[in-house]
Structures are given as structure tokens and as C-alpha cells.
Amino acid sequence: MLGNCFTLFMATMAVICSVGSAYDPDPLQDFCVAVDDSKAAVFVNGKICKDPKFVTPNDFSISGLNRVGNISSLVGSAVTKVFVDQLPGLNTLGISLVRIDYAPYGLNPPHIHPRASEILVVMEGTLYAGFITSNPQNPNMRNKLFAKILHPGDVYVFPKGLIHFQYNVGKGNAVAFASLNSQDPGIITLANALFGSEPPLNSDVLAKAFHLDKKIIKYLQSVPWMQN
Ligand SMILES: *[C@@H]1O[C@H](CO)[C@@H](O)[C@H](O)[C@H]1NC(C)=O
After folding, report:
1. What are the disulfide bonds (predicted)?
2. Domain containing 103: what range?
3. 70 within ligand 1 shell (Cβ under 6 A)
4. 136: in domain
5. Cα torsion angle, 32, 35, 39, 44, sign
6. Cα 79 from Cα 101, distance rounded (Å)
7. What CATH number has the domain bearing residue 160?
8. What spacing in Å lies between the alpha carbon of 118 and ligand 1's midpoint?
9. Chain mean pLDDT for the chain
10. 227 in contact with ligand 1, CB cutoff 6 A
């Protein structure tokens, strides 16, 4: 009897704890349109809901995804985001969208979404796209690359938290759309984060990690790392 009570107690605690630490939770109401919470006195895991009385169709809508992004950056790609900051109606729904434009040989550089898997569909052009698995359990296995060439209509999925990229290997521009299962997937562009951090990461750390001369690290830390 005592054992059963204890099991029930532990199960209840597990449920409470898992709710407490959840992210992109299932909504507890039809919607929870985000309001700008920067002025709010409390931090919440997500955004505060707008009073449903004042919600309008525009809270669920955004325009402009027919437009080509600015692909004149150093990497030759542009990501147009539709995350909760751009579309407040996404709050609590666990979903978002991007449009990605690529100049010829434009690259969406190796990056991670810490909170989302991504499913991408190519609309135009030819992309070389892939991801790399995490550090292997078996030390004889390498971090495995899964990559292939994609044409219009082809779909590729990038599992949550893994390093992935797309590279335009065609002669013209390329366009893809992708959906992510988070209202705010987060983006860690590896080169930018490691060589462009503010303040700069100790160059000994980077020299050792990359097996590179410190002069090369200093150079990499001196060049601009723009977000695409
Ligand atoms: C496009 O990006 C480039 C480089 O980042 C910048 O110099 C330029 O002003 C941008 N153009 C537009 C129209 O935003």
C-alpha cells in the first residue's frame, strides 16, 4: 500500500516536473497570441498572451515571403524568418517557417537549431544539403555525414540539434522553404559563434580545438562574421 502511494506520488511529481520544464508546449487554449513582453516585469518560458478580445486575423498572418532575401552577404544566402517574433500568433504552437534564398554558390553555413528539427523543400535551383551526426558512442565510428544533391520538389529533413547546411551548386539562384517544430528554433552558426563571439573566446582554446596556429585563429577572430 505504502509502495503504491509512493509510486503514485513519484508519477505525479514526474508529470508536474515535466510540465515545469517543457518548451514549445501543447497549447492549453485555442491560441495565445504573443505580446511584446520586454516591458513585462516577469520572464516566462515563451511569451505572454494577448487578451483574446483584442486578437485580430493579422496576429496570425505575415506577408512578403514571395520576395527574394538580400543575398549579397559574404556567404551569399539570406534567411527570411517567420518565428514568434515576426508572427505573434505562433506563440505556444511549436511551429515556424523560413524562406532561404541562395546566390549561385551561396551557402547557408553549418549551423544548429537547438530547439527544432527542420523539414526543407527546394522550390528552385540545385542544393547540396546535409547534416552530421553527434559524437559517436563507438570511438571507431566517425561523426557521420548524410548529404545529397536536391532539386526542385525534393525534401530533406535535418534532425533536431544536429549540424546542417545547404550549398547552392547550381548556376542560378536557389530558393527553399523550411518548417521547424519550434516557435523560436534558435540558430547557432558555428563559425560565427566560435570566431565571432563577444567578447572573443580565448585563442588558445580555439587553437587547440581546431589544431590551428594561433595566428590563424587571431585572423579568424578579426574578420566580420555577419548573420545571413
Ligand atoms: C544587403 O546586404 C548588404 C551586405 O550585408 C548591405 O550592404 C546592403 O545594404 C543590403 N541591401 C539591402 C537592400 O538591404
Report:
1. 32-49
2. 29-185
3. yes
4. yes
5. positive
6. 7
7. 2.60.120.10
8. 27
9. 89
10. no
Please give the annotated binding residues, written as ranges: 108, 111, 113, 118, 164
Q: Which amino acid is at 72?
A: S
Residue 146 and residue 54 in one domain: yes
Q: What are the pLDDT digits (tens) for 148-196?
A: 999 999 999 999 999 999 999 999 999 999 999 999 999 999 999 999 9
> How far, in Å, is the centroid of ligand 1 from the Cα of 145?
33
**What's the pTM?**
0.86
Judge whether 106 and 176 are in contact, CB under 8 Å. no
218 in the same domain as 178: no
- Domain contains 112: yes
Confidence (pLDDT) at 24:
78
56 shares its domain with 165: yes
Residues 97 and 180 in one domain: yes
- The one-character DSSP state at 172 is S
Residues 170 and 195 in one domain: no
- β 107-112/118-124 pair status: unpaired
Q: Which of 70, 226, 228 should be mutated for ligand 1, with most atoms under 8 A from CB?
A: 70
Ligand 1 centroid to residue 69 C-alpha, Å:
10
8 A C-beta contact, residue 126 and residue 151: yes
45 lines ligand 1 (CB under 6 A): no
Q: Where are the beta strands (DSSP E) in the chain?
A: 77-82, 96-102, 107-112, 118-124, 127-132, 145-150, 155-158, 163-168, 174-180, 188-189
